[in-house]
């Protein structure tokens, strides 16, 4: 009897071990390509916003504060929950580092070296978070990267819209144009800078995955550059929006087969360009 009990204890321990492994499988989450792209776009915006906060600190502390807050707003509670599933420590550290950046910028006498340190620390944590949150095959997947480009273009449009003080339904687009010329009035400088940063990053990412063998690849690059020029020159919102609808979205669909919805589908679902739904597969080639 004692011998039987002695033999069963190791077996029971092994059973518990397999049980815990099974629970990890149950509570783990396998993310689709578009979920990963959305998260990666958020990470890119955090990097951009924190860099803008760092750059603006000495010239305009108010705008620097806006960028620090934009960085924190880029991560949702659902994002935090998903990070926590993979690594609870990183979820806590990411939230803390974003709060630390805001506090450093908002202090009565903000220190440039302190803010620089906070931005550097945030970048290190984001690198760890991406490694924990995104599977390597999706991190190197061209389709996922194309979706990130799409999401960054959407971020650029959204921030440009806010920079012009426009309503979400875009009915005030023509009203945002100053009389006597074709230049629009920027009412939120921080959002304007964010829109420029988003489209610049979209161009950089596209250049990393640009398929030289595709006859439309240069046309898409030109369309992205044209959108950037419209924003840089403070052109009416509709002109930038039209480039996305007529060129960027169709070309992304054609080149990368990401199956982005059109504007009508997005509006029907109450979504803007940054929320384009996609049924893209994550099985496409890696890069």
What features would you describe in this structure?
By secondary structure, the protein is an all-alpha fold. It has two domains: 33-137; 141-275. It has twelve helices and no strands. Helix 2 (33-56) runs antiparallel to helix 3 (61-73).
Give the secondary structure arrangement, pairings included.
Elements (H helix, E strand, L loop, with lengths): L1 H26 L5 H24 L4 H13 L3 H10 L1 H19 L5 H22 L2 H4 L2 H22 L25 H21 L7 H16 L4 H20 L6 H6 L19
Helix pairs in contact: 2-3, 2-6, 2-8, 2-9, 3-5, 3-9, 4-5, 5-6, 8-9, 8-11, 9-10, 10-11
How much of the sequence lies in strands comes to under 5%
Kindly state the number of beta strands: 0
The total domain count is 2
- Fraction of residues in H or I helices: over 70%
How would you name the oligomeric state of the polypeptide chains in this document?
A: single chain
**Termini separation:** 61 Å
N-to-C SSE string, H for helix and E for strand = HHHHHHHHHHHH
**Rg estimate, integer Å:** 23 Å
- Weakly predicted, low-confidence segments: 1-31, 169-181, 263-287
Class per helix and strand makeup: mainly alpha
Give the biggest beta sheet. Answer: none
Mean pLDDT figure: 81
Tally the helices.
12
Shape estimate:
globular
